[in-house]
Amino acid sequence: MSSSVNKHVLVPIGEGTEEMEAIIVIDVIRRAGAQVIVASVENSLQVKCSRGVNIIADSLIADVESQQFDLIACPGGMPGAERLRDCETLERMTIKQRDEGRLYAAICATPAVFFQAKGLMDGHRGTSHPAFSDKLVDQSLVQERVVVDGNLTTSRGPGTAFEFALSLVKQLYGAEKAQQVAGPMVMYPYEL
Amino acid sequence: MSSSVNKHVLVPIGEGTEEMEAIIVIDVIRRAGAQVIVASVENSLQVKCSRGVNIIADSLIADVESQQFDLIACPGGMPGAERLRDCETLERMTIKQRDEGRLYAAICATPAVFFQAKGLMDGHRGTSHPAFSDKLVDQSLVQERVVVDGNLTTSRGPGTAFEFALSLVKQLYGAEKAQQVAGPMVMYPYEL
Ligand SMILES: [Cu+]
Q1: What is the distance in angstroms between the Cα of B151 and the nearest Cα belonging to chain A?
Q2: A8-176 adopts what CATH topology?
Q3: What are the residue ranges spanned by the domains of chain B?
Q4: What do the Gene Ontology cellular component annotations say (chains A, B) (predicted)?
Q5: Which of A161, A157, A14, A132 has the alpha carbon at shortest distance from A82?
Q6: What DSSP element (H or E) covers A182?
């Protein structure tokens, strides 16, 4: 986990993505020094999120399909989770990510609505938003705020998004970097 | 604090605004049912935030100056806090807001960089980001994560932004509404 190596991270967004979950993941991972590409699964770079905030993505998803990412991190929100699920490019990319042993992650509705629907939870424990977590096949860790199981990380909602993002920083760069990023953000007390 | 009355909230943003602080405040307060206007203090609606996320504001600040808001809530980030401070329209609006006894609020660098510089902290206790809070004249509550003093609310950084936003919901709509909004977000444990 050399922090001198530049890490590349994909954050896909679509109509109805939860903007807090997207932005917290993008911002926190950029604070760690990673190159984060925000990619729209829609036909336009401009995406209207779940509470009406309009964000301009860096790329269309098709334009980054050939790139290799150290992490694919999917925000939640509805219908955002369905928009991500229904994007065949993102599905291919995430299955390849899983098959090649690199990190992939989802929060809120997306573990249940996208990842489980496409077999990406198979053999993995995880969690999802309380309104969706009862649909997960493996219920053993659904009460946890963040679950890391192998190369899959899942989490529950906007209120767990900082913990989710900092867990991803820790997995990419190590605990020391995660602490460095957490400090100036004035995090609430929790176990990193 | 009748929740049947529609509340109007202004969230100003500028180049280098901390996107997590802006989006958390906008999103959480919209979840409570308020009409939130995101207003750019720049010449364009599209604003590049502190970690490179491009957000499209709803209005230019000049176009909403004549409107009355129940709350003006200012995000932090640098140089975002300076961009808000240097906007004369926003300065006039916030001074009027204070003088007429309505709610105004700032987080992160903004209490020190904007509010104190323009006299908006005078006679008020508050806090600011740890890198700026030693500059506040009144040091009595700077260690607090959120300070409500009269109609002024201040807070410290991205990691306190949910608490800040939910405190504003509580002040606008009451504690019950704040609890209703907090629940589905899967908040970390803290005293609302
Ligand atoms: Cu969500």
Answers
A1: 24
A2: Rossmann fold (3.40.50)
A3: 8-176
A4: cytoplasm
A5: A14
A6: helix A175-185
